[in-house]
């Protein structure tokens, strides 16, 4: 029918090849990392480990790099067409390794902000941003441990893996969006704290505010595109109960 042909054409127009999409997404992720580093270096005074505000600057860089970009890369491993056949174990190791790397960077990012707060006598865990952030990290740690136990350890039964797999996938996307919410709220909070007393007020939109707001939007776009890629039916790994899934 005409309606079916129109639907097919619209679907075909929206059908973006996976590898160019991933190239664009990787470029966007690197741009987010470069921008957060530039923000902290150019406007916030650079980096140090002395407990000053320069120590705090490690926090946004490590969180964006680990909790958003590297975590997003880990989430997309099973959308790579090469994972759709052959042994799954190397891809499992890559997926868990990227996620572990993201977790390590995230913990270092938390250490930076706690070090800064403690050295300045600032209370910890009082803002909505901090609540969302810590909750995301705790959920992330549970997700990684459960995934390691269910999918990498050899004694996990097949029925348990089948039962846990949709839960693991759901919380994977949930953690990414919580990570994005944490980073965006953190950028906004930092601008409110910094752009006052002797600086151009945030409401007057100085160059730093424009730059950091743009960074927040790019992080949001990155997260939405990753979740969209995870939800795209044509990019999902074919569900198989092959023997190699029992590795």
Automatic annotation (TrEMBL):
SMART domains: B561. It comes from the Eukaryota. It is a multi-pass membrane protein. It is an enzyme of class 7 (translocase). It catalyses: Fe(3+)(out) + L-ascorbate(in) = monodehydro-L-ascorbate radical(in) + Fe(2+)(out) + H(+). Residues 24-231 form the Cytochrome b561 domain. Its cofactor is heme b. GO terms for molecular function: metal ion binding; transmembrane ascorbate ferrireductase activity. Keywords: Electron transport, Endosome, Glycoprotein, Heme, Iron, Lysosome, Membrane, Metal-binding, Oxidoreductase, Translocase, Transmembrane, Transmembrane helix, Transport. It is found in: Late endosome membrane; Lysosome membrane. InterPro entries: CYB561/CYBRD1-like (IPR043205), Cyt_b561/ferric_Rdtase_TM (IPR006593). The chain crosses the membrane at residues 12-36, 56-78, 98-119, 131-155, 167-187, 207-231. GO terms for cellular component: late endosome membrane; lysosomal membrane. The keyword Translocase applies. Its main location: membrane. Pfam families: Cytochrom_B561. Its EC number is 7.2.1.3. Transmembrane reductase that uses ascorbate as an electron donor in the cytoplasm and transfers electrons across membranes to reduce iron cations Fe(3+) into Fe(2+) in the lumen of the late endosome and lysosome. Reduced iron can then be extruded from the late endosome and lysosome to the cytoplasm by divalent metal-specific transporters. It is therefore most probably involved in endosomal and lysosomal cellular iron homeostasis. Homodimer. This is Lysosomal membrane ascorbate-dependent ferrireductase CYB561A3. The lineage of its organism: Eukaryota, Metazoa, Chordata, Craniata, Vertebrata. The gene is Cyb561a3.
């Amino acid at each position: 029918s005409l309606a079916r042909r129109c639907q097919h054409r619209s679907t075909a127009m929206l059908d973006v090849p996976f590898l160019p999409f991933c190239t664009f997404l990787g470029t966007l992720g690197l741009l987010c990392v470069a921008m957060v580093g530039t923000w902290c270096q150019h406007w916030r005074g650079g980096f140090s480990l002395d407990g000053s505000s320069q120590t705090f600057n490690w926090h946004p860089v490590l969180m964006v790099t680990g909790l958003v970009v590297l975590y997003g890369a880990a989430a997309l491993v099973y959308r790579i067409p090469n994972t759709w056949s052959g042994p799954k174990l190397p891809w499992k190791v890559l997926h868990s390794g990227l996620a572990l790397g993201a977790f390590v960077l995230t913990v270092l990012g938390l250490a930076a902000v706690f070090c800064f707060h403690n050295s300045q006598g600032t209370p910890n865990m009082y803002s909505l941003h901090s609540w969302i952030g810590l909750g995301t990290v705790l959920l992330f740690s549970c997700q990684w441990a459960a995934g390691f136990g269910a999918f990498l350890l050899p004694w996990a039964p097949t029925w348990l893996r089948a039962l846990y797999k949709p839960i693991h996938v759901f919380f994977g996307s949930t953690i990414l969006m919580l990570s994005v919410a944490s980073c965006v709220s953190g950028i906004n909070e930092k601008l409110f704290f910094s752009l006052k007393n002797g600086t151009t007020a945030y409401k007057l939109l100085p160059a730093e505010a424009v730059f950091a707001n743009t960074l927040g939007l790019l992080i949001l776009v990155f997260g939405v595109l990753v979740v969209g890629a995870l939800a795209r039916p044509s990019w999902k790994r074919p569900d198989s109960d092959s023997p190699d899934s029992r590795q």
